[in-house]
Amino acid sequence: MSNNISACTQEISNTTHLPAGSIALWWLGQASFAIRSSSLTILIDPFLSEVEGRLIKPPFTAETAPEVDFVLCTHEHLDHMDLPTLGKLAQHQQQTHFIVPRPLVKLLTDAGIEEARIQGVQPDEEHALGTAQLFPVPAMHAIQCPPRVYDFGFAESGGLYRYLGYMIEMDGVRLYHPGDTLVYNGLAEQLRGMQIDLALLPINGRNYYREQQHLVGNMDEREAADLAAEAGINAVIPTHYEMFSANTGRVGFFVDYLRARHPTIMCHILSHGRRFVYTR
Predict the structure, then answer these.
(1) Which residue among 28, 157, 230, 255 is buried most deeply as judged by most CB within 10 Å?
(2) Which InterPro entries match (predicted)?
(3) Domain 7-268, CATH number (from 3.40.50.880, 3.30.300.30, 3.40.50.2300, 3.60.15.10)
(4) Cis omega before residue 263 (within 30°)?
(5) Which contiguous run of DSSP H or E holds residue 239?
């Protein structure tokens, strides 16, 4: 490989043999992940652009990314739908397909991605992603705060869900990536019915002062831990911290709270760009 290829790219590319019931994950910062089974590579919310205020450097660029089968984006904020990265990735990897909430398909076509390579999805649907299965889950978020309150984005999207999370079943492992969401009535019940093995939960929270700076928030550390318990989730990886100083979370507090209140739930703290293998 070229010297320009990062160690993270090499490790993802070389991870081709995994035990049964196992997947490999790489935290790329914020809510961005690479997920690998023995036969499939998925990127979720890849945020690889160098932007002002970013504290963690991207582990690779769109030009030096590993071969990717599917890219999933949960909503339109830059740290989840990095359109410059998506456009470059589409140019460099003709095999890659893109999964987004249905109201956001046009954002990708406007970025130069062929519509035939984009699939818009909604909750209560099931989609095959190669050897994996995808189940979209509603997320409660907002385009901007203020003045919008947290909701599902129906008003801006003709009654469609604008913000999504995804449950992905790969090699027998059920993984939940919520995108950005608050805990809302019925979320825990939906997830309990899906029998989630591993959840990648945001912990940065929200408050009035951040919202006055147009920083739309999430569940906080306590809510993430309590959601995992109520939903019967086996293991959790906290996300959405350490990227921007004005909008981070307290991972130490999350671990302490989870251990004190819900000690049977496993917690894994990932290093940026380093492989973690989860086995059921």
Answers:
(1) 28
(2) Metallo-B-lactamas, RibonucZ/Hydroxyglut_hydro, UPF0173_UPF0282_UlaG_hydrolase
(3) 3.60.15.10
(4) no
(5) strand 235-239
- As a whole number of Å, the CA-based R_g of the chain is 17
For 93-145, the pLDDT digits (tens) are: 999 999 999 999 999 999 999 999 999 999 999 999 999 999 999 999 999 98
Q: Which residues have CB under 8 Å from 159's CB, separation 6+?
A: none
Hunting for tokens 């699939």 — which residue is that? 119
CB 160 within 8 A of CB 151: no
- 70 conformational bin, left if phi > 0, alpha if psi -120 to 50, beta if neither: beta
Helix (H, G, I), strand (E, B) or coil at 141: strand
* CA 91 from centroid of its chain's CA atoms: 22
Per-domain residue ranges of the chain: 7-268
Relative orientation angle of helices 221-230 and 187-194, to the nearest 10 degrees: 50
Cα–Cα distance measured from residue 128 to residue 106, given in angstroms and rounded to the nearest whole number: 22
List C-alpha distances in Å: 120 to 101, 136, 155, 163, 255: 5, 11, 18, 12, 35
Tokens of 238: 């906290």
Residue 268 CB-half CA count within 13 A: 21
CB 160 within 8 A of CB 139: no
Percent of the chain with pLDDT over 70: 99
